[in-house]
Structure to design on (101 residues):
């Protein structure tokens, strides 16, 4: 097991987890339930963490995450369900419709 990154919140941690898993990396989250401890614990120790199960996959996982984080951050509105989409998504997370050209 090797830690790849700390995420600012659980939503982003889950997104990163999906990015790694989509590429066949066995990734998991740690500390994802500690947000309730903020106030009792230093906030930095309550952030969800992204880990890989296999140390051999750590380097590729970091490269994937770096590439993902360098995607242009876009904002667009889904033509089908009018959901507001932010981030590197090319399809609507609500209904799955593709991003308009
Ligand atoms: Zn939609």
């Amino acid at each position: 097991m090797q830690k790849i990154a700390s995420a600012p919140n659980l939503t982003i941690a889950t997104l990163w987890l999906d990015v790694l898993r989509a590429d066949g990396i066995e990734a998991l989250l740690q500390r994802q339930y500690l947000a309730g401890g903020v106030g009792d614990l230093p906030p930095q120790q309550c952030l969800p963490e992204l880990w890989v199960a296999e140390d051999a996959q750590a380097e590729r996982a970091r490269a994937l995450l770096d590439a993902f984080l360098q995607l242009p951050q876009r904002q667009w509105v889904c033509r089908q369900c009018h959901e507001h989409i932010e981030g590197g998504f090319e399809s609507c997370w609500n209904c799955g419709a593709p991003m308009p050209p």
In short: Residues 78, 80-81, 83, 92, 94-95, 97 surround zinc ion (CB under 6 Å). The mean pLDDT is 87.
